[in-house]
Amino acid sequence: MIDVRRLAKHYRVHRRQPGLGAALRSLLHRSYETVKAVDGIDFHVAPGERVGFLGPNGAGKTTTLKMLSGLLHPTSGEVRVAGHVPRRREAEFLKRVTLVMGQKQQLLWDLPPAETFALNRAIYDVPPAQFEETVAELTRLLELQDLVGKPTRQLSLGERMKCELAAALLHRPQVLFLDEPTIGLDVSMQATVRGFVKAYNERFGATVLLTSHDMDDVAALCPRVIVIDKGRIIHDGDLRELQRAVRPDKRIVVRLEHPVPAAELSRFGAVVSADAAQAVIQVHAAEVSAAVGRILAALPVTDLTVEDPPLEEVMSELFRSGRAAGEAAR
Ligand SMILES: Nc1ncnc2c1ncn2[C@@H]1O[C@H](COP(=O)(O)OP(=O)(O)OP(=O)(O)O)[C@@H](O)[C@H]1O
């Protein structure tokens, strides 16, 4: 569904030193620098997949999504989405994809979302019966009934985001590019948006490529992740395997009947945190069952769970090691 080969986007940016002298000099002699926002990436996404496109700030994620949706022309390389070359922006292509940016809005500010929906129906030439059916379905899934008649400017951020999603999906696109779709939303609204994206993917077999700095989005939605840093792909594969490869340790969370000194806890592994009622002890995955047995035998345990390390830690470790490898190669 998405095919990307040796894709690159280089920006030519004007650079100058700070200060008035430098400003005057730059009028006569401008110096430019090339920023390799995307630096020759390859990947393939099959129909119906949900893939996280992750990376630190400035890694090249938004630039890539813009090229995939045809908003930016690549400097070089090839892209095909649903069989189309995105930069041609053919009507058939536009009907099959959508780009939702958490930081930008397409809803008309002074009018109710229902008006934007009607406008999109005309733009995408959606047959009236299908439009009615899709609006009804999205209204139910996203609980929009009380929102679509109010002027957009009166909606809260989360309410607006739900309507944004509906507006972006009215033409039932097969490919969803989602750029930080839950940014700024409270936890319950985040959960609503995640649940909705998953339901849409399952209901219509749609392909989803999602960027997010919120690892809960990624854990909930993306069995596969592509990780990009400084314009290059540093990982592409199964999220759970990535977790195991980068952080082959587990966390044993024990609730305690009474406080246990840290020195005593450290006999079982590395103590991540400990207070009067609960301790978190980290051990290598291969040693979990032995450690659990010893903990249950020795400590006043009222409850015990085994967890993976937080995904945030896995990702920051991956970014760090990716950078170190990149620097060593230079
Ligand atoms: N129009 C532009 N002109 C020049 N440089 C740009 C332009 N847009 C992006 N860049 C640069 O390209 C690089 C990649 O930017 P991009 O927005 O794709 O990153 P990102 O991974 O989406 O980051 P974030 O997580 O912060 O949104 C950055 O170094 C950015 O400064």
Automatic annotation (TrEMBL):
Family matches, as InterPro entries: AAA+_ATPase, ABC_transporter-like_ATP-bd, ABC_transporter_ATP-binding, P-loop_NTPase
MF terms in GO: ATP binding; ATP hydrolysis activity
Full protein name: ABC transporter
Keywords of the record: ATP-binding, Nucleotide-binding, Transport
Presence of the UniProt keyword ATP-binding in the record: yes
Residue intervals of the ABC transporter domain: 22-255
Origin superkingdom: Bacteria
